Structures are given as structure tokens and as C-alpha cells.
């Protein structure tokens, strides 16, 4: 009993340390945030619509899944009394970051328990710490993105599923289905854990050592699937299908062999597909198709960035050891399957949708962080044993001691985290600061009826052009006096965007430069203004 109490207290202490470290790192990033991620604009628009429009109508017309926008809306309402006269756009940005950040910090708890369940508490602690501090996971889960919420529920689903596979208890499978359903309500790939847990359950019936009565296996599978389906059912009913997300719909078409042509280039003024890295025309390159090797290279490149270029090495180096451990751990098999299938899905999307981003690799990085640390501790045990056998008694005293090898590997992890913190703690999207400055400047300059064309999607957000409708003035004189604004990055090489900008310049006619950032001599952003205005059709918005 005393040992159990001591173990429980130690777990609490380690979890508190993880929460403090994660909260400090992400709090620093929140305090020094310059600009939100471009993808975050869409989620904030979603949340703003949920506040003023019927929820079913919003769900049917929005492409993303609703749980993260709902959490953004909740954070917005809770922080409203404390924001004072802060611009509306900055308040929404804070709300979106808080929703993601809080979930990202809490993610340390299921990660710690996951590592402890599969290996031991040392692996759980160091794996969770690694994920909280590495640059890509730390920065993405402090931004205006879905990753914190998504990974929190995926990690919970994995934890409950692995406990269910070990104990064969129905309540663990129900909790896994519930958590997987909530992960699905953040992103459609959240259902992956539910599907793969069902696959492992079926595979367990093939392996004699894991086999259970078929009736029990069926009950476990039904509990898992039913809990997940009931969680997602209200959303399915609202939209009349499984998902509205374009990339997921294209992936489903691919699985059916009915892939339609894909256009991943956003319309002028959207600019939200920041993760589309190699679509036709991006960076000035005409590319009509993407081969499997090129797509695989792009995916692996993003995965390596997520692992901070080196922490993936123990994962690959430990494959032989994992193969031996899988024989006694169906939970470890599930973790490896999640990593492998996630990689295959990203590869397929890269080939067919020309779409990949380092933030979409974070589920692989989450699982890999635990495996990487577990492999390092395994190597420390192997090195201590081999050094002790091969060396003289004097050297055996030092190099044959397992604790010293563990401390050496822990010191190495700390050194890696210290180096990574230099990159982690840099302000978010500092290179996009000019877009924020232009947008806030326009809030004071634009008049009713003015039209602002923003190909990049950020300045228009800070100018409050994306958060609520802006009706046209009814006075003909006011309409005639209205201005057109166009924002241009002179260094932009996206072919589609450049062509559309040229078309917009033709519509504007004679235009003057009214704002250049950071200076008129070396501008990174140029804002044009013209008095000429295109006639708007009935019902059009500026």
C-alpha cells in the first residue's frame, strides 16, 4: 500500500512538471506572438459564424469539422470581459490561441500515461517532455490551429484503446470510442484510432497468445464503434454525410478509384492553403502532376522537421526491438500501426491533392517521441551490459553501470531540448508582421463601401474584413467615392496569385501606393489604392 501511494505521488509530481514546462513554453509563445497562422483565419471565421448564425446552417456550409471552432468560440466568450477596447481581430486571435494552447499543454498528461502504459514512467515523462519542447510541436500547439485539440483527443483514444487491449474491459473501449469520436470532430483522420483498434482486435484473434472468446471480442468492437458513432452522429446528421472537408473527400474518391481533378489553388483573396507546398504554380514552378517518389520525399522531409531532424533516428534504429516487444504487447502494435498508416495517408494526399504540411505529421511525431525515448533507454541498458563484459574491472565500475548510461542519455536529451528551445521560443510568424500592420492601418483608413483585395488572407483579417458582413452603402455618392485596395508582395512567386493580381490591377486602373512596409526603398509589402470601382451585382459584398 505504501509503495502504491509513493508511486501515485511520483506520477503526480512528474505530470505537474510536464504541465509547468509546457505551460511556460507555450505561454512565452503566446506573449510574443506577432501574427496568426493563415489557416487560423478560417477557423476564426468559422467560430464567428457560429456566434451569429444557426449552428446547423454553419455546419452544412463550412468545410472543416466543428470541435475546434466551438472551443475557440467558448474561449472568446470567456475572455470577452478582460479584453477591453482591444481590436476585434486581436481578441479572436487570442481566443484561438488559448483554445489550442490549453489543449496542447494538457496533452502532456495522456502522453505521459501512454508512455508509462507501454514502457515505464521514465519513457512517459521524457517522451512527453520532448513533444512539449521540440520546435514544431511546441509552436504549432501554441498557434491558431487545431493540432492541440486534435492530438489531445487522439492521445486519449490511444491510451484508452491500449488499456482496453490489455484488460479486455468494455469500458476502456467505450472511452476509446468516445475520445476517437471527439478527435474526429476536430479532424476526420481522428477516426483512424477507432478503425485501427478494430483491426488490432481482429488480429488478436489470429494470434494464439492474444486470443479471447469471440463473443468478448465482438462486445469490445461494438463498444468501441458504437461510442465513436454516437459521438459523431449529430454532426453526420447536420451535414448529411461523413465530412465536408475537401482533402478528405478527394481521399475517399481515391480509395474508390474515382479521383476527380483537383485544384488546390485558392481564389484571390483567400490565401488560406498555407500547407499546399507543391501545387501547380507554387514558388514559380509549373507542375501538373506529382510522382510517388517526389511526394514521398516531401512527406519525409516534413516528418524530419517535426522530429527536429534527429529524434527519428532511434525510432528507426529500434525497429528490431519493437518487433520482439510486439509479441507481448498489442498496444505497441496499435501505436506502430497508427504511425505507419498516418504516413501512408500523408503520402497518398501528397500525390493526389498536392498537400502536405509539417503540422499534419505531428501524430507521427507524438507516437515517435515515445518510441524514440524508449529506444534510447533500451540502448543504455544494452551498452552498460556490453561495456561491463568487455572492459577491465576498473572501467566496468564506471561504464558497466546502467544508471550512468541512463543519465548520459538523459543529459543528451536535455542538451537537444536546450538547443531546440532556441528555435522554439522565437516569435510566431514574425516574417508576416507587415500584414498585421497593414490590416490595423486599414481599420482606420477604410470607409463603408471600400473594397480590399488581399491575396494572402492576413491583412484582411486584421482589417476586420473577414469576421462579419460589410453591407454596401446605399448612397450613390458614397458608392462612387469608394476606394479599391490591393495588397502585393513584390517577392511573391506563386504563378496563379501573380496572374490574379495582374488582373486585379487592370480592374483598378490608375492606382497609387499608399503604404509600403517596412520602407518605401525596400518594400516587402505594397498597398495600392484606386478610386475606380467595379460595378457590383445585386447582393455582392465588398
List the helices and strands and how they pair.
Layout: H1 2-31, H2 38-52, H3 55-61, H4 67-79, H5 88-106, H6 108-118, H7 121-133, H8 135-140, H9 147-167, H10 170-184, H11 192-204, H12 214-239, H13 246-255, H14 292-306, H15 313-317, H16 319-326, H17 330-353, H18 362-390, H19 393-399, H20 402-424, H21 433-445, E1 451-453, H22 459-462, H23 476-480, E2 484-488, H24 495-508, E3 512-517, E4 525-530
Parallel strand pairs: 1-2
Antiparallel strand pairs: 2-4, 3-4
Structure description:
The chain has 542 residues and is mainly alpha-helical. It has two domains: 2-424, no CATH class; 430-530, no CATH class. Helix content is 64%, strand content 4%. The chain is built from 24 helices and four strands. The chain has helices at 2-31, 38-52, 55-61, 67-79, 88-106, 108-118, 121-133, 135-140, 147-167, 170-184, 192-204, 214-239, 246-255, 292-306, 313-317, 319-326, 330-353, 362-390, 393-399, 402-424, 433-445, 459-462, 476-480, 495-508; strands at 451-453, 484-488, 512-517, 525-530. It has a four-stranded mixed β-sheet, with helices on both faces. Helix 2 (38-52) packs across helix 4, helix 11 (192-204) runs antiparallel to helix 12 and helix 17 packs across helix 18 (362-390). The radius of gyration is 26 Å and the shape is globular. The chain starts with a helix and ends in a 12-residue tail after the last strand. The model is unreliable at 258-276, 394-400 and 533-542 (pLDDT under 50).
Amino acid at each position: 500500500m505504501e509503495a502504491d501511494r509513493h508511486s501515485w505521488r511520483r506520477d503526480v509530481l512528474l505530470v505537474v512538471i510536464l504541465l509547468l514546462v509546457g505551460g511556460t513554453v507555450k505561454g512565452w509563445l503566446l506573449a510574443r506572438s506577432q501574427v496568426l497562422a493563415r489557416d487560423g483565419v478560417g477557423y476564426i471565421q468559422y467560430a464567428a459564424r457560429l456566434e451569429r448564425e444557426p449552428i446547423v446552417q454553419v455546419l452544412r456550409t463550412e468545410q472543416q469539422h466543428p470541435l475546434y471552432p466551438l472551443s475557440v468560440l467558448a474561449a472568446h466568450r470567456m475572455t470577452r470581459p478582460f479584453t477591453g477596447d482591444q481590436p476585434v481581430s486581436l481578441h479572436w486571435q487570442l481566443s484561438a490561441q488559448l483554445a489550442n494552447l490549453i489543449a496542447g499543454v494538457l496533452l502532456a498528461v495522456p502522453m505521459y500515461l501512454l508512455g508509462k502504459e507501454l514502457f515505464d514512467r521514465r519513457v512517459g515523462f521524457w517522451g512527453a517532455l520532448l513533444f512539449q519542447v521540440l520546435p514544431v510541436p511546441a509552436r504549432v500547439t501554441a498557434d491558431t490551429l487545431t493540432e492541440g485539440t486534435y492530438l489531445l483527443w487522439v492521445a486519449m483514444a490511444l491510451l484508452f484503446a491500449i488499456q482496453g487491449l490489455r484488460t479486455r474491459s468494455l469500458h476502456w473501449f467505450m472511452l476509446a470510442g468516445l475520445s476517437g469520436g471527439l478527435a474526429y470532430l476536430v479532424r476526420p483522420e481522428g477516426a483512424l484510432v477507432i478503425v485501427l483498434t478494430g483491426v488490432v482486435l481482429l488480429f488478436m484473434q489470429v494470434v494464439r497468445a492474444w486470443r479471447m472468446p469471440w463473443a468478448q471480442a465482438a462486445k469490445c468492437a461494438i463498444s468501441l464503434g458504437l461510442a465513436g458513432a454516437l459521438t459523431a452522429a449529430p454532426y453526420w446528421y447536420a451535414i448529411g454525410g461523413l465530412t465536408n472537408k475537401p482533402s478528405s473527400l478527394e481521399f475517399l474518391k481515391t480509395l474508390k478509384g474515382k479521383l476527380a481533378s483537383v485544384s488546390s489553388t485558392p481564389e484571390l483573396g483567400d490565401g488560406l492553403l498555407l500547407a499546399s507546398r507543391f501545387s501547380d504554380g507554387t514558388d514559380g514552378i509549373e507542375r501538373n502532376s506529382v510522382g510517388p517518389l517526389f511526394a514521398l520525399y516531401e512527406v519525409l522531409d516534413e516528418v524530419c522537421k517535426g522530429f527536429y531532424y534527429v529524434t527519428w533516428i532511434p525510432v528507426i534504429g529500434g525497429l528490431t526491438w519493437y518487433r520482439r516487444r510486439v509479441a507481448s504487447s498489442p498496444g505497441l502494435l496499435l501505436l506502430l500501426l497508427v504511425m505507419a498508416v498516418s504516413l501512408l495517408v500523408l503520402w497518398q494526399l501528397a500525390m493526389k491533392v498536392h498537400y502536405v504540411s509539417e503540422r499534419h505529421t505531428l501524430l507521427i511525431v507524438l507516437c515517435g517521441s515515445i518510441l524514440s525515448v524508449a529506444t534510447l533507454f533500451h540502448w543504455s541498458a544494452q551498452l552498460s551490459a556490453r561495456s561491463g563484459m568487455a572492459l577491465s574491472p576498473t572501467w566496468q565500475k564506471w561504464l558497466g553501470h546502467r544508471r550512468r548510461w541512463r543519465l548520459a542519455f538523459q543529459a543528451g536529451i536535455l542538451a537537444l531540448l536546450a538547443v531546440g528551445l532556441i528555435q522554439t521560443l522565437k516569435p510566431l510568424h514574425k516574417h508576416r508582421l507587415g500584414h498585421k500592420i497593414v490590416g490595423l492601418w486599414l481599420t482606420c483608413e477604410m470607409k463603408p463601401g471600400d473594397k480590399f483585395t488581399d491575396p494572402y488572407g492576413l491583412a484582411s483579417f486584421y482589417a476586420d474584413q473577414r469576421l462579419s458582413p460589410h453591407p454596401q452603402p446605399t448612397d450613390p455618392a458614397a458608392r462612387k467615392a469608394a476606394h479599391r485596395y490591393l495588397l502585393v508582395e513584390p517577392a511573391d512567386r506563386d504563378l496563379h496569385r501573380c496572374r490574379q493580381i495582374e488582373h486585379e490591377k487592370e480592374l483598378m486602373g490608375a492606382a497609387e501606393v499608399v503604404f509600403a512596409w517596412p520602407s518605401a526603398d525596400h518594400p516587402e509589402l505594397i498597398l495600392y489604392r484606386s478610386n475606380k470601382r467595379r460595378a457590383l451585382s445585386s447582393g455582392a459584398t465588398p
